[in-house]
What does this fold into?
Amino acid sequence: MNGLTASTPLDERRKNVAVVATYSLAAFLSVLAVIPMYLIYFVVQPMPAGLVAKQIVFGTIGTIVMGIAAAWINKRDVAVPA
It folds into this structure.
């Protein structure tokens, strides 16, 4: 069973929370990087709104996947502060 339960050690729960927080922050930052770029492109060179929406969605997904790949390549054990 991979879920968190009341009997899960506190260090394991902290580690899981740290991982979720890290990925949430990465997703948020990728959205902050992708959306303004395509909105500027949209204003400078008018494009159909549907195309811009697709670029934003797939650009965000691509950025997150690249971040996960970089984390997998550079994985290491990190101590979680108590």
Observations:
- Residues 11-73 form one domain.
- The chain is about 75% helix and 0% strand.
- The chain has one domain: 11-73.
